[in-house]
Write a structure and sequence with these properties.
The protein is α/β, with parallel strands linked by helices. It is 54% helix and 10% strand. The chain has helices spanning 4-16, 20-26, 46-49, 53-63, 87-101, 131-149, 165-177, 187-204, 206-220, 224-248, 265-275, 309-324, 338-347, 355-359, 386-404, 411-428, 440-443, 451-468, 485-495, 497-507, 511-530, 538-562, and strands at 38-41, 71-77, 80-85, 115-119, 153-157, 278-281, 284-287, 298-301, 328-334, 361-366, 369-370, 436-437.
């Protein structure tokens, strides 16, 4: 599809001798539609051209000639050049593209030949999959879907937390009280109880904590008993985790967790020793990063010789660079790990990798999910389990359906899609870095800026098409019948879909797509309220029916990229 921003940037570039890509960065979409569809602020050029922004804007406007098929008007206001799109041409372009690409509208081949790793979810084995893990899972899955949709070769990795001192604790707990817990019936619940119990004992007795550390050291060295127990914990945990993943519709290409890199860590230590940056400090091996502005050293090997998260992450970077030849390696992990990733990304530069790989390391940080009682902790035992949360969402939606539409067909299936969709959307709709408090009244609001609202508008478009009984092809549409204010707004929003997806990955922010879907849904709601669709003259009805189909199609595509399924009825 024609990129109007590209056309504008090309002409301004010719008039100013400034690189087109630089110009594109400056072009804005005005918040007030009266100021055009695109605006170029000439303040950015004032210093370089040594002229007042208004004079620059006037001179550029006089020099450029943009095809009137695309831009019907240009105006200079203050230091801005405002551009007004020819909506007839735009409508034809957008609706033809939707007709041709259908469920693939907005997809592209821009990422062809580029490999993107997205690491997400990564729960700890033998611990509850709680609401805190939910955000990384659905955020990562959304990025995975969007990168794939834009043509990138995308690899989803679930870097399981299946190594570390906590497993020494689990092994110690099992040694002491294993027969007291029924691991076959409720594995995660029982393992969590055991973990909380041994953790409490560690707080009281330093010798117990030392025994736990010793267990992990034995596990690293391949001790038969410790390895057998660890495998059992892992197998039981994965079986439970996949109940949640199946409910969320989340999949992975690799389950290589921390333990996968246990035999790859010696090379990391050798490479760091070779770099001359690995030093001993109080019996541990560290990399001092003060010269890089990081005051906390990166610990590579503990005093007892066992490894750390950092060592394993560095081994993973080496492996992934060699195995996947990645362009980006993205980590979707809470902001609490900001320091860890700053350290690891800096130390990775000492491994002798091509700069492409170290430049491609990206940490997408997100805020914590909190309940009304405050922060959750497995150690303290106050977690909200994701399975229970999703089932509660479905149950609450069922109650709403029973009250408002008791005769609905496929109540169970629709309640599942609405309930789970509501929870997913709630995790993606706010700026990722912000903390959030989970509130049922907000999550399941059918009229607010929520997942159910988007689904409700989609169902409305479907209902209109069902009542019409037909959907005309684009060749039967008179575009001139879509020149009312509401139709124009929808068409401009539909046009921005692919650009929205590109902005999501450029800014590492899923809320951009979540807000886009709300905007499209609200635009259609306004259109529906202000325009008669069925029962109008045939040419007007056909145009409005087709626009309805286009909106429903894009709402469904966008929701699917976020991991949300659309219900048939609401």
């Amino acid at each position: 599809m024609v990129e109007i921003k590209e056309i504008i940037a090309q002409e301004i570039s010719k008039a100013t001798d400034i690189e087109k890509e630089e110009i594109k960065k400056y072009i804005e979409i005005p918040t007030n539609e009266e100021n055009g569809d695109y605006a170029f602020p000439c303040f950015k050029l004032a210093k370089a051209l040594k002229k007042a922004p208004q004079i620059i804007a006037t001179e550029i406007k006089e020099k450029i000639e943009i095809d009137s098929n695309w831009i019907q008007k240009m105006e200079v206001v203050g230091g801005y050049i405002n551009f007004y799109i020819n909506t007839n041409t735009l409508a034809k372009e957008v609706l033809t593209e939707i007709e041709n690409k259908k469920e693939e509208y907005g997809s592209s081949e821009k990422g062809k030949g580029k490999n993107i790793i997205v690491e997400y979810s990564s729960p700890n084995i033998a611990k509850e999959f709680h609401i805190g893990h939910l955000r990384t899972t659905v955020i990562g899955a959304a990025f995975y879907n969007i990168y794939k949709y834009l043509g990138y070769n995308t690899i989803g990795i679930n870097h399981l937390g299946d190594y570390g001192t906590q497993f020494g604790k689990m092994i110690e707990g099992y040694k002491r009280w294993g027969t007291e817990y029924n691991l076959e019936e409720n594995p995660i619940e029982e393992l969590t109880k055991m973990y909380i119990r041994i953790n409490d004992l560690c707080k009281e007795d330093e010798k117990v904590l030392e025994a736990c550390r010793d267990n992990f050291k034995k596990l690293e060295e391949g001790d038969e008993y410790c390895t057998k127990l660890w495998n059992k914990f892992k197998e039981l945990s994965l079986k439970e985790f996949y109940k949640t993943y199946d409910m969320l519709g989340v999949k992975f290409d690799s389950l290589n967790g921390e333990s996968f890199y246990s035999d790859k860590m010696p090379e990391v230590i050798q490479l760091l020793e070779k770099s001359g940056k690995l030093i001993e400090s109080q019996g541990a091996k560290i990399v001092d990063l003060e010269d890089k502005g990081i005051n906390t050293p990166c610990i590579i090997e503990k005093t007892n010789g066992s490894t750390t998260y950092a060592t394993r992450d560095l081994a993973a970077i080496l492996y992934r660079a060699r195995t996947y030849d990645y362009d980006k390696c993205i980590y979707v992990v809470a902001y609490e790990q900001n320091l860890h990733f700053k350290q690891v990304f800096e130390v990775a530069k000492l491994l002798g990798l091509d700069k492409k790989y170290t430049d491609g390391l990206i940490h997408i940080a997100y805020g914590m999910t909190r309940v009304s009682t405050g922060r959750m902790s497995t150690r303290e035992g106050n977690v909200v389990k994701v399975n229970e949360l999703l089932n509660e969402a479905i149950s609450r939606v069922k109650d709403i359906i029973e009250e408002k539409n008791p005769n609905m067909e496929n109540k169970e299936e629709n309640a599942r899609k609405i309930g789970i969709g509501a929870v997913i959307y709630n995790n993606l709709c706010t700026t990722l870095i912000k903390d959030q408090i989970f509130d049922w009244n907000t999550v399941l609001n059918f009229n607010g800026e929520t997942g159910p609202y988007i689904q409700y508008i989609y169902v409305r478009t479907k209902s209109v098409l069902e009542k019409a009984g037909y959907n005309p092809s684009i060749n039967e549409i008179d575009i001139a019948k879509l020149q009312d204010k509401e139709s124009k707004k929808i068409i401009k929003t539909l046009y921005n879909f692919e650009n929205t997806l590109e902005t999501v990955i450029e800014k590492n922010e899923t809320s951009i797509l979540a807000r886009y879907l709300i905007e499209l849904a609200q635009s259609y709601s306004n259109f529906y309220n202000e325009n008669k669709i069925l029962g109008e003259e045939k040419d007007i009805q056909d145009a409005r029916i087709y626009l309805t189909y286009a909106v429903g199609n894009v709402l469904k595509i966008g929701a699917k990229l976020l991991g949300i399924e659309m219900p048939d009825k609401m």
